Amino acid sequence: MSSSTSVSVVPQSTSGFSEIFDSLPYYDNDLEQYPHLKQKVEQELAWEAGATPQELHPMVHPPFELFSKNPLLKAELERCEAREPLPPLDTVRYQLPGPINVPASDEDWRKAIDNAHAQLEHQRIRQTNLALLQQYGSNAWRIHNYRLEAAANTAEKALEELRNLTTEVNRDRKNFQTRIGGQLTSLETRWTELISSVLQIEMANVALEADIDRLNKREVELAGL
Q1: Average pLDDT by consecutive 10-residue portion of the chain (225 residues)?
Q2: How far is Cα 30 from Cα 182, in angstroms, rounded to an integer?
Q3: Residue ranges of the domains in the chain?
Q4: Which of 13, 36, 76, 135 is the most exposed place for a label (fewest CB within 10 A)?
Q5: Which residues are registered as beta bridge partners of 17?
Q6: Cβ of 97: how many Cβ atoms within 10 Å?
Q7: What is the H or E stretch that residue 18 is in?
Q8: How crowded is the C-beta side of 143, counted as CA atoms within 13 Å?
Q9: pTM score over 0.70
Q10: How far is CA 36 from its chain centroid?
Q11: Among candidates 17, 1, 222, which has minimal Cα distance to 9?
């Protein structure tokens, strides 16, 4: 791994220890230099894609449950996810069936008459709604479309601003990391040169000590003669 990537552990007061990953993703190229690291990252991503929420990191937000307080919408969402067809329309309520029992009792005829009154009231309300729609529907639809267009324009403008802001942030991050990465490379090169110089000095010292020992031994031999 390059010197620009490091992992530190910072003690927390409530949750024990928390890992902090510090890296320069716009500058580091460890995955290109070390293919086995890229393979490990791909395996980790594949595991996270199929992992259950209990197996993920505690900082990962749990999945959001839609329509938890609306069972009808939740059931409809489950139907759409399962790609099941819509249930057939109930057309019985729009029919005028007579009494089922033969001969019919007064209660059977009363239920049939009540159903007929309900159907008549339903048709009357439909006629009223159609008249209102014919008189005011076009203008109401134009106003609705105008509001939708205004909301869409506002959302598109906010999206464009967010994209520009994201691009600016990424550009600043890339420039900063590239600049810092250059400094890190220079410092790492300087560190390597210093280590190499120290090793060369140590090797020269070892060679010099060997020469000194050889000369001392030669001096002892000459003194004995």
Answers
A1: 44 46 74 82 81 68 83 92 88 78 84 88 93 93 95 96 95 91 91 95 95 91 83
A2: 16
A3: 1-66
A4: 13
A5: 11
A6: 10
A7: strand 17-22
A8: 5
A9: no
A10: 25
A11: 17
